[in-house]
């Protein structure tokens, strides 16, 4: 009953879910369930010949281990009591014993099988009545189908974080020196590969027979070019001359290719590698004599067209390694005749091959490279027409070098600006006036604002650049259309400089006012006078005035090209008028920027009063194009909408405060006494000070006495401890001396014996 009860409980508590920790787990032992072991379903051993395992019957033991003598005597005594039968032999007795043991084994096997059948039948009957004993009503389907609550935002976030990809460990970030070293090695390997392709080394390696194993099926076998020639006869003779001439032409072409490949570029010869191995190979081939050439020029060894194309491509390909140029002429020879992308690639590879971390002298080389690039930019700006696209791309390389070497870059920029200012001052001293500099100086000013911070209160490069631009706007007169374009460019650069700091530049406002002045008619009614470099009357007082209505009607607003600053002249009168209107549009756009930037200043309203008069009376009402009139109206609207957040400083209108009058102090003069000339309050104060000093000295005296007493007590305690320690040490020494004397006496006695 206990076994059945256990089985019943096990069936009722079968585990439904592997994630339910409250359910009972099935216990096992060596992979076998403990519940199955408790059933006692032992495997029937058909070979067992005893009721209990490990035991032997007495007859079997006597027969096998007793030599058969005991069993023989037992049988003999039994047979003597029987009728006079003939006694059995030993062999017959053993056979009878074997038959009897087999019969007993079969009987035991039959009993076990019957018991097993009865047990299984009993279990089956118990399973049938088990449902009647423990019957449970099934749960309704509605209870099983419970509504699951929707997960909230927190649960969803937790699940997302659980399934989120974890961070994987990666390699450490390489330092700048390691990256530069890897880039140099990569460029050197590419350059060596290019030289091999240019010399045809790759073609020779490809023609060498590759290793073939015995199991190779030659699936990739491709027939090469057929070098055979058709045999032809002429007048009964074979055409040998044509073949010889053809071979000679092939040999000459190959010799020319060899000569071309033997020549080295100046930048390649200066390479630190030197490619000495290639030179030595070429010398060895030349010294090998005629048989080598004949073998090379044999018909079966002729170069294919693909190999020749590869050589030409490698020869025209840009080298991968460059040596830093030592002069401006070397840099110019490297960059001249190349496209924009190739020039940028050359400069970039020069920087990578000569990184400061690769060698000791590379820093000085790259510092020189910045100056050479700056000079090259000036050379491009002076070309006709200027290569502005190349300059725009080279600014990135200048910025990278400036970040690496800011001190040398600032020195180079200051040297260029100083040279330009000295030249302008020399022209003023000799001629009394100076002209606007070339486009190269203007581009240098623009580059200086891109390379260095312009919002600093003082900067070693930007501050001289601001002074230089102020001098240009005040000392260089406007005599032609080219000067107008240069001046407007300087104004644009000026506004870019002060866009963050918002410094007020009076030279800028004066120049823009002068540009608007030379673009307006009817100057007699204006109630103000111009300042240098503009003149109210003269040859260039109406330089930007356009009176042709057809040109005004056909004009379209567009950006003003810097080619006008480099000396470009108008081909027709209409083109010149369109350029004048474009200059006026640029000037109005700059005025609008100034209004938006300086409109909050308290004094800007008074400063721009002449500007407002020009825009209101002349430009907005005249016959200018509609776009210019709308721009003027927008500027006037911005001026009116600007709020004055600050008031100008004025002196406060109030009566002056008179000086305070003091009454004289009367001092009582005493003829005698140590404390003469003092009042009662002062005497009382001095008495208290004297008493305080006396009490302070008494307190200090008492403190000193207390400290001395404490010191004496501490010293007496220390002396007592020292005396006690000395006494104990002396006692120990005495006991040790006594023991030593006794030991020596005992030793003498033993020696005498």
TrEMBL record:
The reply to whether Nucleus figures as a keyword in the UniProt entry is: yes
- Biased composition annotated in UniProt, kind: Acidic residues: 250-271
Q: Which Pfam families match?
A: Nop14 (PF04147)
InterPro entries recorded for this chain?
Answer: Nop14
Instruction: Return the Basic and acidic residues bias intervals.
Output: 84-128, 138-163, 173-207, 225-249
Top-level division of the source organism's lineage: Eukaryota
Cellular localization per UniProt:
Nucleus, Nucleolus
In UniProt terms, what function does this protein have? Involved in nucleolar processing of pre-18S ribosomal RNA. Has a role in the nuclear export of 40S pre-ribosomal subunit to the cytoplasm.
Family affiliation: Belongs to the NOP14 family.
What is the name of the protein in this document?
Nucleolar protein 14 isoform X2
Provenance organism: Equus przewalskii (Przewalski's horse)
